[in-house]
Amino acid sequence: MTTKSNAARSEVERLRDRPNARVLVIGGGINGIGTFRDLALQGIDVVLVERNDFVSGASAASSHMIHGGVRYLENGEFRLVKESVTERNGLLKIAPHYVKPLQTTIPIFSTFSGILAAPLRFLTHKQGKPKERGAFLIKTGLTIYDSFSRDGGSVPRHQFSGKKKSLETQPELNPGIKYTATYFDASVHDPERLALDVLADGLAAGPHARAANYVEAIGVRDGGVLVRDRETGEEFSIVADVVVNASGPWTDLTNAALGRSTEFMGGTKGSHIVLDNQELLEACKGREMFFENNDGRIVLIYPLKGRVMVGTTDLEADMSERAVCTEDEIDYFIELVSHVFPTIPVTRSQIVYSFSGVRPLPHHDDTAPGFVSRDYRIVPGSIDGLGDTKILSLVGGKWTTFRALSEHLANETLDALGATRTVSTAGLAIGGGVGFPATPAAERDWIARYGADVGSERASQLLHRYGTKATFVIDAVAGSDDDDTRLANASEYSRTEIDYLVRTEHVVHLSDVFLRRTSIAFVGGISGALVREVGEIVANALGWSPNRRSEEEDAFIAELADAHRVHLESEDGSEAAALR
After folding, report:
1. How confident is the model at residue 121 (pLDDT cuts 50, 70, 90)?
2. What is the pLDDT of residue 549?
3. Topology of the domain covering 10-58+192-266+374-417
4. N or C: which end of the chain has fewer CB within 10 A?
5. Please, what CATH class does the domain formed by 269-358 belong to?
């Protein structure tokens, strides 16, 4: 356990010094952050608190996709699919630095399989006997899917290929396929960084917008929500006219802490592994492989950051336990890869990272997990001890629809306040997406303009890492005496860059840097030497004592092992990350 600091953080001081607001948002996942940004842009006095780090819960365990949800059509969720496709197309335009078109291929092993079972699943949402969907059903679904995407061609329409052409394109595919279907959705290769951009947009709206991580809502006192700074133990109450509970899978637990018993949530667990397997990476040909396994689960094999991510499961979750990827899930992932690419060996030794989370789905009784609605709803209520304060509990929600959901939730909040919307977030660029070069020529011009201080290659790297907000990192490098010295154990980052992230992006713990401000852990780049190297930079930036720094390093190494199954080996200073 890391020693807590006695010094109050400036973000918390701003809450404590003025412990009132028109709106208090509880929960710093993507939907809470999106709602915070929306309200801040309307000029509303709004506060956001998150009990852990921002975007560290369900939002950090996503499949890195911005997608319409073609399989939701079978659930009859046409409204959600249409909204999702619209938001996917919108995010390609307003967050082009992080959201990119993603070519997706479905291997198909039969022509008519599933036709008789599909109407039963549609009507009852019961899984029944698992059966892979055949070409007829997939063709029907993709045709409907395309019909929702008619905004000038954000992505191409789907294409079907027969066995011969499919194997010519991807020869490592299972020769038992009969067809492949290829369509486009979108990827979000750095979801946590996109969320941090959304948060920064809200904070930039003015001093009426305040946010703090590692601050939890624990009860009701003095007519307000009692919160605790988890770093110092300090407690104080925040009085608000509206409280938005955007705690995701923990919505019921937050309500219980405030004194209201609810049973809104019934999330399911999803896990992923990340493989360092060059043969599998090349076999994907830059495409996500997306298909239904013979047990009815949707599965993806996804090339990402020079690695291959494989997921996901859809299992009942126990909210009293930490969600971690299990041995059975790893066996399942390895088996399913062999189903699609039978000649490519996948072993545990190739796994460099794993992660798991709980989807914020509604309570679903005996509905099969795969058929639980991915749509969202907003439930109003009240809490004893909070007087006339209105409580809005968010149930459901997913990454793709966060902007539309946030708009909906903000509108309900504005109605409760008797306020009106003054700014639309539709079409409003996010963070480093503002002015992001849209053509190769524009990108070359941007790099030429800003590469004088760091070189064109480094400017390009920073542009693709941070969007146009890379200029702030470049300015920090230009003003540093460190001359952009690269990390000795992770040369893709520099000491000044890490220092900048720590000082400007609400870093509280060492894990915040490795797991959410950078992609180092995700790609398997962690070593004991790197933990110590970055620990030194963070300690200097945050004023940690040698003891605090040591405990932070130990705590992060333990978190890697417990939550991500990554164990650091050897004691000779050249440790390597290994998953077991």
Report:
1. very low
2. 97
3. FAD/NAD(P)-binding domain (3.50.50)
4. N
5. alpha beta
